[in-house]
Design a protein that fits this description.
Double Stranded RNA Binding Domain; alpha+beta; 2 helices; 4 strands; about 30% strand
């Protein structure tokens, strides 16, 4: 799986990049056929300090996205990972139902 991290208008700290790589890589346990993931980090302005993490994940036949806002990048990434996890589980359930319908169960 290819993981790309984009930090808009700032340079992401190496520990943040490592955290993102670890979290996104852990999603392969829900779907081994993940093609790529793009993580976009941004913040609205220096005063409010609202940090945004957007994850765009490509799986065969579909693109999953999750956007979260918080006061910390790790919180935003963690919440986005949770959203993507739910989407991957739902996709897996749908595919299992489709396979069972074709098998005649």
């Amino acid at each position: 799986m290819n993981i790309s991290i984009t930090a808009r208008k700032f340079k992401a700290h190496p520990t943040l990049k490592e955290y993102i790589n670890l979290e996104v890589s852990s999603l392969t346990r829900f779907n081994e056929s993940i093609l790529s993931a793009e993580v976009i980090l941004s913040f609205q302005n220096n005063k409010d300090s609202i940090k945004t993490a957007e994850i765009i994940m490509h799986v065969p036949g579909q693109i999953l996205t999750a956007i979260e806002h918080s006061d910390d990048f790790k919180k935003s990434v963690g919440a986005s990972i949770e959203k993507i996890t739910r989407q991957l589980q739902k996709l897996k359930t749908k595919r299992e139902i489709k396979v069972n319908d074709k098998a005649g169960f």
